[in-house]
C-alpha cells in the first residue's frame, strides 16, 4: 500500500545522514541529536524530527533514504489543541512501544502522534524507484591466480565511465568521510 500518513523511522537502520531533511521541499524535517545513540563510523547520532504543520506528505524523504529506514504509516489523525504538539521525532513500534497500540486498544477519538495504530505501515521505500542508484558499481580486481604471481595491486580501480557512474550515486551526506580511516574529503573529490 502506498498511503501517506505520519512518519515511521527504524532507528537501527537510520544512519542520521540528513538526506531526508535536505530534500524536504517545506523544510519540515530537522535532524535532532540523540545523546543516547553512540556515533560510529558511517552513522551519526541524529534522527529526523518532522513538523506536521509544514509536511505535505509528498514522500520525497522516503524515496531518498539510503538505508530505507524512513516510512509513512496509515495514521492520519492528530487531535490536539496545542500547536507545539505537531512536531514528532519519528520512531516506530520497536523504539516507542507506548505510542503504538494494537487495534483492540486503539481509539480514533484519542488519535494523536502519541496514540497510533500498531502494524499500520503505508508508504514504504521501493529501491526500484528511488531517487538515487542504490547498487554500487563493483570495483574490478585482479584474480587471485594472477595476484599470487607478483606484488601487483589487487584492486584495479574504475575506468572513467565507471567512476562517473559510481560518483553519481553520491548524496553528499559525508558519512563516508567520517568513516574513512584516511580522512579523505571524498565528496570534494567526486565533484
From TrEMBL:
Q: Where is the 4Fe-4S ferredoxin-type domain?
A: 4-34, 46-75, 161-189
For the keyword 4Fe-4S, the answer is yes
Keyword Iron-sulfur included in the entry's annotation: yes
Question: Which Pfam families does the record associate with it?
Answer: Fer4_20, Fer4_7
GO molecular function terms here? 4 iron, 4 sulfur cluster binding; metal ion binding
TM stretches of this protein? none
Query: What keywords sit in the KW lines?
Result: 4Fe-4S, Iron, Iron-sulfur, Metal-binding
Q: What is this protein called?
A: 4Fe-4S ferredoxin-type domain-containing protein
Give the organism the record lists.
marine sediment metagenome
Amino acid at each position: 500500500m502506498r498511503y501517506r500518513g505520519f512518519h515511521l523511522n527504524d532507528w537501527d537502520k537510520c544512519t542520521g545522514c540528513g538526506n531526508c531533511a535536505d530534500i524536504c521541499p517545506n523544510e519540515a524535517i530537522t535532524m535532532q541529536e540523540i545523546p543516547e545513540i553512540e556515533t560510529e563510523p558511517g552513522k551519526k547520532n541524529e534522527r529526523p524530527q518532522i513538523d506536521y504543520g509544514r509536511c505535505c506528505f509528498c514522500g520525497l524523504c522516503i524515496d531518498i533514504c539510503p538505508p530505507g529506514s524512513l516510512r509513512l504509516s496509515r495514521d492520519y489523525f492528530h487531535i490536539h489543541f496545542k500547536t507545539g504538539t505537531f512536531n514528532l521525532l519519528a520512531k516506530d513500534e520497536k523504539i516507542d512501544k507506548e505510542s503504538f497500540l494494537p487495534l483492540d486498544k486503539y481509539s480514533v477519538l484519542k488519535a494523536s502522534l502519541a496514540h497510533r495504530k500498531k502494524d499500520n505501515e503505508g508508504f514504504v521505500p521501493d529501491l526500484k524507484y528511488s531517487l538515487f542508484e542504490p547498487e554500487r558499481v563493483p570495483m574490478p580486481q585482479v584474480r587471485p591466480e594472477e595476484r599470487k604471481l607478483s606484488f601487483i595491486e589487487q584492486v584495479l580501480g574504475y575506468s572513467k565511465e565507471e567512476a562517473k557512474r559510481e560518483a553519481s550515486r553520491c548524496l553528499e551526506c559525508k558519512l563516508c568521510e567520517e568513516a574513512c580511516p584516511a580522512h579523505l574529503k571524498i565528496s570534494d573529490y567526486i565533484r
